[in-house]
Fold this protein.
Amino acid sequence: MRTAERLYAERGFANVSVRQISEAAGQRNNSAVQYHFESRDRLIETILSNHTRLVEKHRIVMVEALRERKTVSLEEHYSCLILPNVENHIEAGTPTWCARFLAQALGEPALRDYVLQDHLDTPSLRLLDEIGAIRRDGIRPELRARHGTMVRQLCVHAFAELEHDLANGRIDPATAEESWRVLGQDLIKALCGLTTGLLGPR
């Protein structure tokens, strides 16, 4: 799966065949991938589910800690959204491909709905939404949806860009942990500003 993830992240889904995955993984039998995963989409779904599970273990702890709070700030809300991804990247080491893989998957029409359902609709994110740090009253549904799209695009592509820069030596891999943590804090600040500017103060 790691080989498939790398190839898809670096080349896109349309430019990677099962044969190429098998060859890059050192498999002489091209049917090995199909045997284990039935289809290309099933392989991609499995990779996405693995990422979701790894991030969820961090996020659910953070969100549960806020559950009994009377009020939750925007900064705390976005910390729960962003920092679990930061920790997952730090734990995985350098290079990683998961952020670029997710960005590719969100841009693939046949996979987009699955990504939104599986990767972005988890127990921790549903609970975070219920806690209610984001203003809802008086906000038009289409504006709320647009806000969600902006948040998603900013997060996904900011992570993918840093991942690309670390993997290709544009940023020293020795500074990877610091770079991820700085990005996390910058994103939290940016998302707080975006939310206040678009939806108004809570």
